[in-house]
Amino acid sequence: EDEAFLAAFQERIDAEMKIEPNDPMPEGYRKTLVRQISQHAHSEVIGMQPEGNWITRAPTLRRKAALLAKVQDEGGHGLYLYSAAETLGVSREEMTDQLLSGAAKYSSIFNYPTLTWGDIGAIGWLVDGAAIMNQIPLCRCSFGPYARAMIRVCKEESFHQRQGYEIMMTLARGSDEQKAMAQDALDRYWWPSLMMFGPSEGSSVHSSQSMAWKIKRFTNDELRDKFINATVPQAEYLGLTVPDPDLKWNEERQSYDHGEIDWDEFWRVVKGDGPCNRERLRNRTRVHEEGAWVREAALAHAEKRRERAEA
Ligand code: FAQ
């Protein structure tokens, strides 16, 4: 890759032109996108497990229908994202192998357990809320297929966020026991939700290049701050307490200052040693193996059609 090529590519990026799959692109740009998009897809797919855990125990038929639809949406997001990554020349099989072998990451947040119904509210409110904050700028990502996939994904996530917040509102206005359940869910999900945005400035190895390529539009810390600023008033409206004694409005920055994130916990979870990492991968591997016959049947069917078309 010579310098003239890299400079011309950067010029297209700077002019806000979308890069499409057949356009020439630097190998680093392609690799970064495959990494980010495939890990994003894996997160959606693994992310079905914590909430899937409550489908059979949802408190009412209406709650069950909404949760079922939400979990199906996450599966759908995974599929659009795998398709977007495939346009960069990586196969679905390779991506799946990377997930199951532990070579590829998925979001740290999905390695936490869902212990109560309150957690389903907290996930919709906080986890989908954080996902939207991170994904709205991705609708303007320089790579066309990723940007376009994000538009629909964001619309669905905003419905998910509303259904989560509504669960929290119902609990927060309920009995003392329900209020306590909502507070406990916020206590356990607050910090892991902040960790979703990734490491802080100094440790975010990919940020500066990804921002120059307009894959990312904001730093991890900027998005984390936006999320906190939007979410604290929502917690106040619910009458719940954000579990951070150092949380304080900073008039000068027009932003909340927050307490120190436990980065040791973050890296432990990212590296595979969180509360549910093993269970999540074990389930995913089992389901993949159990689905082998479907993939084989689909292949055999495609092969037969091809033979018939050639005959
Ligand atoms: N967990 O240099 P950076 C959802 C890794 S939302 C695990 O800052 P980058 C919806 C990072 O990969 C969740 N690993 O990296 C839903 C890198 O390692 P690598 C998914 C993390 O890429 C809701 C290393 O640390 N959303 O699924 C995490 O510039 C409810 C250094 O980090 C997306 O994936 C983490 N939290 O920025 C589903 C959004 N943070 O790859 C179900 C797209 C960082 O070199 C229910 N992705 N790492 O081995 C992104 O925006 C970016 O990739 C970031 C990380 C912001 C996640």
From TrEMBL:
Transmembrane region(s): none
GO biological process per UniProt: phenylacetate catabolic process
Molecular function, one GO term: phenylacetyl-CoA 1,2-epoxidase activity
EC number(s) given by UniProt: 1.14.13.149
GO cellular component entries: cytosol
InterPro entries: Aromatic_CoA_ox/epox (IPR052703), Ferritin-like (IPR012347), Ferritin-like_SF (IPR009078), PaaA (IPR011881), PaaA_PaaC (IPR007814)
Top-level lineage group: Bacteria
Enzyme class per UniProt: oxidoreductase
Entry keyword annotation includes Oxidoreductase: yes
UniProt keyword annotations, A-Z: Oxidoreductase
PANTHER family cross-referenced by the UniProt entry: 1,2-PHENYLACETYL-COA EPOXIDASE, SUBUNIT A (PTHR30458:SF2), PHENYLACETIC ACID DEGRADATION PROTEIN PAA (PTHR30458)
Protein name, as recorded: 1,2-phenylacetyl-CoA epoxidase subunit A
Gene encoding the protein: paaA
